[in-house]
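Annotators were shown the component list below and the corresponding predicted structure, then asked to write short factual statements about the assembly.
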Amino acid sequence: METIFTSNVFDTETIELAHTRETIVRGGRDKFSLLAQAFDGIKQIGVIGWGSQGPAQAQNLRDSLEGTDIRVKIGLRAGSSSMQAARDAGFSEDQGTLGEMYEVIGESDMVILLISDAAQVENYKKVFATLKRGAVLGLSHGFLLGHLESVGEYFPEGINVIGVCPKGMGPSVRRLYVQGKDVNGAGINCSFAVEQDVDGKATDQAIAWAIGVGAPYVFKTTLGYEYRSDIFGERGILLGAVHGVAEALYRNFVMEKGMGEEDAFVATVENITGPLSRTISHQGIISVYNALDEEGQQTFARMYSAAYHPAFEILMEIYDEVSSGNEIRSVVMAERRFERYPMGKIDGTRMWQVGEKVRAARTGDPEVNPATAGLYCAVMMAQIDLLIEKGHCLSEVCNESVIEAVDSLNPYMHFKGVAYMVDNCSTTARLGSRKWAPRFDYNIMQQALVDFDAGKEADGKLMDAFRKHMIHDVLATVATMRPSVDISLSE
Amino acid sequence: METIFTSNVFDTETIELAHTRETIVRGGRDKFSLLAQAFDGIKQIGVIGWGSQGPAQAQNLRDSLEGTDIRVKIGLRAGSSSMQAARDAGFSEDQGTLGEMYEVIGESDMVILLISDAAQVENYKKVFATLKRGAVLGLSHGFLLGHLESVGEYFPEGINVIGVCPKGMGPSVRRLYVQGKDVNGAGINCSFAVEQDVDGKATDQAIAWAIGVGAPYVFKTTLGYEYRSDIFGERGILLGAVHGVAEALYRNFVMEKGMGEEDAFVATVENITGPLSRTISHQGIISVYNALDEEGQQTFARMYSAAYHPAFEILMEIYDEVSSGNEIRSVVMAERRFERYPMGKIDGTRMWQVGEKVRAARTGDPEVNPATAGLYCAVMMAQIDLLIEKGHCLSEVCNESVIEAVDSLNPYMHFKGVAYMVDNCSTTARLGSRKWAPRFDYNIMQQALVDFDAGKEADGKLMDAFRKHMIHDVLATVATMRPSVDISLSE
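Structure shown to annotators:
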């Protein structure tokens, strides 16, 4: 994939990631003064939808564009229950910053379409038809392209079509932006894509959008690679896999190791969302292993070896399903069933009830459990290896497999539990998590834990490959662009 | 769906099933003398493949056609490891009853294509091209039609294309046929479909084939309805659901009710595959409920009410996936991954190890556990209701949701365990079971068991609908055509 590009407005850098080179742009509040130039000709940006990304991106863009004459206006369905939430965030009909979605679409120079994937599928024809001549269409996800491909259609001609895809959930896009006010910014990395560029301005429009929402750094992808890695990633380590791994391991610790329920929760879920995520975020994956004592390293290695292939197998299946269009069709069909059966809650089971008690009684970080560490790192590395195999650029690999997990999603899980995290993601992500978590659970239970509990030795070659993996250096390079702020969550 | 037909060779009956009428033909050894007439013009039947259905159908047909001049000849890939198994079953190159598959296809007047679904997808073009002019193509599954639909192709013109689909796994098709020798036959019911009929003989050819493999009764469907109900059914109550239900319930009994592991296995898996299946087979679903005492009925009703909708939700999803072609594409893609990751075993986990011990120590039937009974019956009824809603004829509904479970698959599970059952089904079924069992498990765990354990009351309307359901009369009518022989299994 071509990841080299130039900009007429922003300074670009070309970084070396292992054997590859990528052009990137660093974000920061000192770049906000360039946004108006990059948005040349755009007087109104319509942000359509108030789901996960909508509130975050609209508020960040509005704040970043303060002092320019570019207006950010929210468009929502007439009678939408989110109208009041948008007003509470400072948008209003009176000031002309809130309106009915098709009116806003028709009058905006740039339309950022952040309605749910399913709503995009239902409404894209009318949206396309309503767009102003020469408007810019912005997406934060390649899902719509995936759907268009599966029905043999495409975007309208004659307009710029760009993507800016924050590699984190909406609430963290806003939270970090707010937290970063005093340190020249903090936020969520974004990939960008130029799907159609009719006037040569698309790249700068996309970069400006990304910097405006607070991206620490911006890298290039295509909408096709984006939806594959994104839909895949949230079904993998970001949501589906972490949930499935937690269930399988917790059950194993309770039923087979005789551990108490709260201890088991601490040794599994709390371990992953707490110390493991924090270590990976600041020091990389390999440091989890390096920090263990010899016995711990042996346990890690045995579990890593038992889990890597069962995880890789499910990940391959997910990638095939996404890439073939099956997963997108499934999401569209699922939405049509919601009227009869809305998505149920996942947090009523005993394990998550135990988790609530554990969080309430939490005092400090628990000791790292080397088996949990080995399992979590194995799934993460399997996801990294698969995305590399499928040709994704290393920034996309790192963000979809590591950074989004440890800097955006896991901290939310640590703070509020799995249900909160799942409920604050997109419907596509929630559906994917519900679909694939049990698959990871069973494959881990049937293969990895059976082997591990039977005392199977570590796989020397696999562990060597882990220790010498290029991703460790790549993560270290990418970490130099990480803001100094950790997300901090409170009620 | 039109289920009325006439035959030039066999006596038909029209039966009333609730508000519907279906034409059926009863099987039996007294009909074998009519087979040659129905197979008029057919001198050789080539049975291609030696998987699950191949050995059963080929041997049954050969035995049923004894004394006619119709030859049953097995066709296998050159160098196939199944050659010896076919020889052991009495087919041989010397006698001209065993050969290379394309040779056999090219020389047969009727070709029964029983290679795996994936092999059909890989080879159908060559198979179609190799068929003799005017040959009859027979399938035991609509999978290939589903694939052809998804790639926009169809069967060759100018030949009869028929389906005969035994509603049970291959080993039981053979086992019951052998057991039924002295009682005018016993076997597995078959649906038949006439997809293309160029000479008016297709219906009789299909009925003859079904009676030849030992069907107690034969009913009409289409290949389209067949693949939907069949692929759906094995993902539902036949394999996927029963596995998922067992895992969720066993875990609940051990982790939340504090039951011992062996007791929990008896109260769940042994209950389902033993007394519940036997009662349903002989007296129908409602009799499970009627046989309970008042307290047992209340428990049954609470669990039934908690489980029906969570099961229906997953079943709807499965039906959509199958009907849209997604599931067929998934199977085709899965087969392509097998070289890298062959299907793993599911029987290594502690629960199935416990099961082995329980089976070894088994003395008689355990007492029925009313919670297990309520859960199992809820999933079965949800499947019945969904198939009716989707327009399947009642014979297909009963066979895919009840009879195949309690007369074919569950007895095998009871005898040899879940892994044996799974490994003796088609790859499509195995894949489906592995995919959907965990989905049933999670939905049952997260919704049904949470509600049940919280003491949620029974749903009066749902229980009324269950008690007054038309399926009870329908099953009673269908049961009159059940042979007097129960499958009996031994090493």
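Statements collected:
1. Chain A touches chain B at residues 251, 254-256, 309-310, 312-313, 316-317, 320-321, 324, 326, 329-330, 333-334, 337, 340-341, 344-346, 348-350, 434-435, 437-439, 441-443, 445-447, 449-450 (CB under 8 Å).
2. Chain A has 21 helices and ten strands.
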